[in-house]
Specification:
Rossmann fold, three-stranded parallel β-sheet, globular
Length: 155
């Protein structure tokens, strides 16, 4: 595994710019996150939501929060303003397949943290849970590619 990000411990040690006690790859990612214009969250659908690896990454955003004396929506902090996007794959493609994952993305990243949603590519029907992924047999690789190209179109 090239980069390992462990889940938040809830210890508050990293609060408001204090040093992070966990020694994992997230620490070297923080400057890149702060510099980024857009953060793309990509995950397979596991048990109707984001994978635990992406969830751990999101939980660690706690350390980039800054104190906010007048927090909106009952928050206690503010986050850097970023654009974000969601890319997901799933074996099935029912009308409800991505409902829980999209709800979490919109609530946690867009509404609570305050990132600007640039869109989503939700690739359902990409294989079965007992076999190999079959995304190459769908239109989603091309859709994802075109979506990426469209994020910041020069006018």
């Amino acid at each position: 595994m090239k980069h390992e990000v462990r889940g938040c411990l809830g210890c508050n040690a990293c609060r408001y710019g204090k040093p992070r006690i966990q020694k994992d790859s997230f620490n070297e990612m923080v400057p890149k996150i702060k510099e980024a214009d857009c953060i793309v969250f990509a995950s397979p659908l596991y048990f109707w939501t984001l994978s635990s690896k992406i969830k751990a990454f999101i939980e660690r955003f706690y350390c980039i929060a800054e104190e906010d004396p007048n927090p909106p929506l009952g928050r206690y902090e503010k986050y850097p303003i970023k654009d974000c996007a969601l890319l997901m794959t799933a074996a099935d493609n029912f009308f409800w397949t991505f409902e829980q994952a999209v709800s979490y993305y919109k609530f946690a990243l867009v509404n609570y943290i305050g990132f600007h949603n640039k869109g989503m590519v939700l690739a359902g029907g990409c294989g079965d849970t007992n076999g190999k992924a079959q995304i190459e047999k769908t239109e989603y690789l091309e859709k994802g590619y075109e979506f990426g190209k469209s994020l910041y179109v020069k006018e």
